[in-house]
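Thread: Newbie trying to understand structure tokens

Hi all, I'm a second-year student working on a class project, and my supervisor (Dr. K.) asked me to get a predicted structure for one chain before our next meeting. I've only ever worked with sequences, so writing a 3D structure as a token string is new to me. If someone could post the tokens and maybe explain what I'm looking at, I'd be very grateful. Here's the chain:
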Amino acid sequence: MYAIIETCGKQYKVVEGETVFFEKLDSEEGKKVTFDKVILVSDENGKVQIGNPYVKGVKVEGKVIAHGKAKKIIVFKMKAKKNERKKQGHRQPYTKIEITAIKTGATKTVVEKEETVKKETATKKVASTKTTTAKTTTAKKEEKVKA
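---
Reply by user tm_fold:
Sure, no problem. This is what the structure looks like when written as tokens:
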């Protein structure tokens, strides 16, 4: 099962149990994080749900493992023939998150559907017994009127 989520202005493909490096998030180490902006979800059977723009009822949960900085990159700017050079370094901050669960609303909907089917069959049985009793009472009244 995997999901594509949107956070920090980017889209990430996440799978349960893997660790992902996101842009720096404002949460402490060891805390749980939930991502509601799920764009796509694929279950074990290969069934894919695509959101418009997001899939409703689906959440991705994770646990913050660590905060840190990535490797240094060097930004070198130079203008030719002008003896103008500028060298800078940059380390992008990140948050390391372990994806713990992808919660879909499918399990809830299956249970709810089963309950509604049971209720409908029960109401149909009650309605059918009411109609049969109503028919018999009207038939008895008609017999009394004729006699």
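A couple of things are worth pointing out once you decode it. Helices lie at 106-146. Residues 107-111 have pLDDT under 50 and may be disordered. Feel free to ask follow-ups in this thread.
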